[in-house]
Amino acid sequence: MDSPIFFTMAWLRLGSSSLGIRDNESLHVGQRIGDELLQAIQNSKIYIPIFSKNYALSHWCLRELAYMVECASKSNGNKEILPIFLDVEPDDVKLKTNLYSKALLKHQKIFCSEVESWKKALVDVDKIKGWNLKTSESQVDLKRSIIQTVLTKLNIGFKKNVTEDLVGVDDRVEAIIKMLHVESDNVQFLGIHGMGGIGKTTLAKVIFNRLSSSFHECNFLSDVGESSRHHGLVHLQKQLLSKFLDSRSLLDQIYDVDDGINMIERVLCNKNVLIVLDDVDEKEQLKSLAGKYDWFGFRSRIIITTRDQSVLTKLGEATDEGLANISAYEVGEMEFDHALKLFSRHAFRRDSPLDQYISLSEKIVHTLGKLPLALEVIGSFLSGKSKALWKDTLNKLKEAPPKEV
Asked: What range(s) does the TIR domain occupy (predicted)?
């Protein structure tokens, strides 16, 4: 199983096995670093080497470090090294003192072909900002800082809330993910379109949660159309950029839409990002937030949800380069069995109607047009209510069935 974090010692557990932390604690003295451990390093997204006073005495640690640096350098920014300096100084690690330098001299006799790569790895890692720790100090604040940093970089804790009562979405999610070609280096745009209440936003949230850990940074921008009308496009541009900036100072340099476009391209052109623009209804919103492929780094994916398919076509027409080929996925009505199951979960807290309500439930589902949001709302409203109210609700729905929500 892939592990997002690789530790060079089990000093820190982060208090959560769900992070998939892998360390070399189980490697016995004298045991060679095998394919399994190297594979663990290769499959990890974040490396946390912990440099101690005795670190450089271990050729295994140095070999691991060199492989981490190699993997990170070839990842196009998708893998990161976050070093911890435990009772050592940066000068020790970059070989400006005797602490690590003497250890490498000892290794020179046996591992002469590898020592140069180890030296380079040590110097390269020391250029990265990490955490300094003294054993005489409390580790609580450091652990908290590391936890927050790692959670942010892995997009854990920033998942979108999705109802547990999902029905009939798996096949659609898989189809959309297949269309995204996540392994391709190209930047790709994909539009999810369909009538209101059909489940576009839910699909986008599920896909965002599934894929977010595969990208360097992510942002899900909700209610783009409404937010644009209430707060303006510049506000949306700043909201988009806020997840990708460590400081707000750059946001303060955005005074109009053109400034925002230039800043988006400047900040994101080398980043591997996953962005969802939810409920877009005008081409100007897309032009201002995701106008061209070259605004984004390799392997970036931009997902757009909209009720109006023509918005996706207009995006291609409105730009100078290549967006006319934007992929599109239409969300159709649910299958009847799935719709009845979803309605039943909200009306009866089970997967099928009570026997005395089967006929009424089927008629209501047919009348609602199998729109997920309408099924959830009406099902919740009727839960625990009298059969008389059910019949009255059905009659009212027949008079004015929802076209969309």
From this structure: 1-154
